Amino acid sequence: MEIPYTVETRPDTGLNNVKIGIWLFLASEVMLFGSLFASYILLRIGSPAWPAGEDYLDIPLAAVNTAVLIISSVTMVMGWASLMRKKLNTYRLYMGATILCGLIFMVIKYFEYSDKFHHGYYPSTNTFLAIYFTMTGLHAAHVLGGSAVNAYLLGPGTKLWKKNPQMFINRVESAGLFWHLVDLIWIFLFPVLYLL
Amino acid sequence: MAEQHEHHEELSFLRKYVFSTDHKVIGIQYAITALIFLFFGFCLMLLMRWQLAYPEQALPIIGSLLGETRMPGGVMLPDFYNQLGAMHGTIMVFMGVVPLAVGAFGNFVVPLQIGAPDMAFPRLNMASYHFFWAGGLVMVLSFFAPGGAASSGWTSYPPLADIATTGQTWWLIGMVLLITSSLFGAINFITTIIQLRAPGLTFFRLPFFVWSQFVTAFLLLLAFPPLEGAGILQLMDRLAGTSFFLPSGLVISGQPLAATGGGSPILWQHLFWFLAHPEVYVLILPAMGIVAEVVANNTRKPLWGYRSMVYAVLFLGFCSFVVWAHHMYITGMGTVVAAFFQATTMIISIPSVVILTALLLSLWGGSIRFNTPMLFALAFLPMFGIGGLTGLPLGLTTTDIPLHDTYYVIGHFHYVVAPGTIFGLFAGIYYWFPKVTGRRMSEFLGKLHFWPSFIFMNGIFFPMLIQGMAGVSRRLYDGGTIYAHAQDVLPLNAMMSWSAWLLALAQIPFIINFFVSIRKGKEVSDNPWQATTLEWAAPSPPPHGNFETLPTVYRGPYEYSIPDQDTDYLPQHQPAEA
Ligand code: HEM
Ligand SMILES: [Cu+2]
Q1: How far apart are CA B106 and CA B110, in angstroms?
Q2: What is the pTM of this model?
Q3: The CATH number of the domain where A101 resides is what?
Q4: Residue B564 in 3-state DSSP?
Q5: If contacts are CB pairs under 8 Å, which of residues 314-373 in chain B contact chain A?
Q6: In chain A, how many domains are there?
Q7: If DSSP codes are grouped into helix, strand and coil, which group holds residue B28?
Q8: What ipTM score was computed for the predicted complex, to two decimals?
Q9: CB distance A134–B242 less than 8 Å?
Q10: CB–CB contact B183 A126 (8 Å)
Q11: Which CATH superfamily is domain B27-245+263-537 in?
C-alpha cells in the first residue's frame, strides 16, 4: 500500500508530508542554534571583559561572505521558480550558482580560519574565540551539508524530473528552505560575532 | 510503489528484518533492543544495591569476575560505583524507557491507531533505529574505555565532567547519536499523525495514546537540540581545550588546571535541564497514553473527560519548557527567578492532576475486567500519584533546599519512572502482544509477574523517601555510613536491596511468558479485547501495509457500553446503522 500525501497535498491540512517534515527539522535547527546563541549571551554577560569582534576577526571578509550567502539564497529561489516554469536548464544554471556560492563561502571561511591559526588564535585561546570557532564551525558544517544536498539535486537527483516532476520540485523546495535557514543563521552570526 | 508491494514477499532476510522500513518491524526492533538495554541498566543497579546494603564487603562470585580495576577482591571501588550510577541513569532514561515507549510502542501502534499504511517517512524511521542502537553500543562499550565509563552522573555536570576520563567523551558521542535518532523519530511521528489519519479520523477522534505520542514528539523535537548544543560545547571543552564550562582558577589535586577558565558550569545546568525537564514528560506521557487505552478498554466505559485530558496534555507539553530551573534552586539564583520557576512548577502540576483524576474517575461505575494489562494500568495510577505528589515539595525552594540531592529525590522520580512508567509499559506489552504476535500471553504468569513486582517496587522506593527526609545524600558509594544523621535509617538499605533482587526474580515469569507465548500462546482473533480503536481492525499480526482496505472512521475512540446496542463496544470504523 502506498503512503499517501508524499507528493500531493492533503486537502484538509493543505500540505504534503515533506513540507511538514522539513519545517519540523528547521524548528529543531532553530533550537540547536538558539541554544548556542543563548550560551553566547550567558557567557558574555558572565565575563568581566569581552573583546570586540574586530580585535580578532576580519570584518570585510565576513561582509563579503554575507553577500555571497544572500546571493545564493536568491539563486536558490530562482532555481525553484525555473522548475515551476518547467525550465530545467535554467534551473541547472541557478542551482549551479547556488553551489558555487556555497563553495566560495567555504573558501573564504578557510582563509579566515587559517589566518587565525597563523596568528596563534585557537579555540582554547579565550572564550570569545571558543564560541566563535564553535558556532561558525557548526554553521560551516551546515553549509557543507546543504551544498551536498544541492549537488545531489543538480546531478543524479535530476533524473526524478522526468519521472515525477512535482516530487522533484518538492525536494528542491525543501533543500531551498534548509538553505535559507543556513543563510539566516549566518545573518545572525555575522553581527553577533563580528560587529557587536 | 505498487510493484514493490507485490514483490515484498521476496525481500531478502536483511531487508526484511534488519534494514526493514516497515513500522511494525522497526517497532519490534526497538522493543527488543530497548528491553535488552533496560535489563542491562537494571543489572547495573543490582550491583549498586549490593554496595549500598553491604558496603565494603566482597560480592561473591560476580564481584571477582568484574576485574581488578572495578571490584578488586570482589569489593567495589568508589569509582566503579560512580560509573554504575551514571550509566544506570543514562541507560534507563535514554536507551531503555524512551526507545521502548516511543520507538517501540509509538512505532508499532500509532500508524495502526490512525489507520495508516505506515509511517510518513519509512526510510527515516529505519535510520532512526540504526542511530539508536549505534548510540547505545557506544555507551555500553565505554565501560572498556581507559578509566571506564562516564562517572559524572547521568547529568554530566561540569566541571567534573569536563575533566573526567575518556568515558565521558564516549558518553557525549553516544548522546549525539541518540539525539539524532530521536530527532528523526520525532519528525516522523508528528508528520504521520498530522497527515496520515484515516478519513473521518479528526483530531478529537484520536485515541489518547496518539495524543500523548504527538506531544511527546514535539518535546523530543524541540528539547533535545539544546542538549546537543551543550554536548558540542562539552566536547569542545574536552577535546579542543576550550573553557565553556570551566570557571577560572580551578585547582585539581593540588595542580592548577591549564585552561583559560572564564566559563560557567551553571550554563551546562541550564542547557541540560532545558532538555531534561521535558524529557521527564517524554518518559511519562506515553505510559499515560497506554494506561488510558487499557483503562477505557477494561472498564468498558468511555474515558471520563477525554477532551479535558487532551487539553491538559497539550498545556502540559507547552509548560514543560518553562520549568527547567526548578532543578537548580541551590545554584544561588535570585529570588525573583526562583519565584517564577516555583510558580510555573505549581502550574504544570495541574494538567498532570487533571489527567490522573480523569483516569481515576473513569473507573467509577465501570464493570472492570481485572486482566494483567489492567492490573498494571491500575497500579500505575497510585504509583504515579505518589511520584507526582512527592514532587511538589521539590518544586518549592523552602522544601527543596533541604531535600535537594537526597534519596528523597531518587525515591520521588523513581516512583514516577519505575512503578509508574515501567508499569505502564508492561501494561502496553500485555495489551498489544496479541496484536503483534497473534497470540495472547498467559494470564496466570502475568499475575505472577504483577503482584510481586508491585510489592517489591514499593519495598525499594518507599524507604528511599524516608532516608531522604532523614537527610541521606544520593550518589554516595557507601550509602552514607560515615554520617551520624544517617545511622537510624541505614538499616533500611539491606531491605531495599533484597527487594531489588527479589524484583529481579519477579521478572522471570514475565521473561518465560514472553518467549513461550510467542510460539505457544493461545491464538486470538483480530480483536481479542473487544476494543474500539483502529489497531484492532487490522489482522493480528498486521501484514505489510497494515489494513486490507483503509478504514474510514465514524466515531470517537472510546464508544463503550452505548445503550441499545448489541455489543458493549462500537469500533471506530463501524458505520452507524441507518
Ligand atoms: C525498578 C528498578 C530500579 C531501581 C531499583 C533503581 C534504583 C536506583 C538506584 C539505587 C539509584 C542510585 C541512587 C544513588 O546512587 O544515589 C538509581 C539512580 C538513577 N535511576 Fe534508577 N532504578 C530503577 C529504575 C530506573 C528507571 C526505570 C529509570 C529511568 C527511566 C531510572 C533512572 C535513574 C536515574 C536517572 C538515576 C540517577 C539519579 C542521580 O542522578 O542521582 N531508574 N536508581
Ligand atoms: Cu523538572
Answers
A1: 5
A2: 0.95
A3: 1.20.120.80
A4: coil
A5: none
A6: 1
A7: helix
A8: 0.96
A9: yes
A10: no
A11: Cytochrome c oxidase-like, subunit I domain (1.20.210.10)
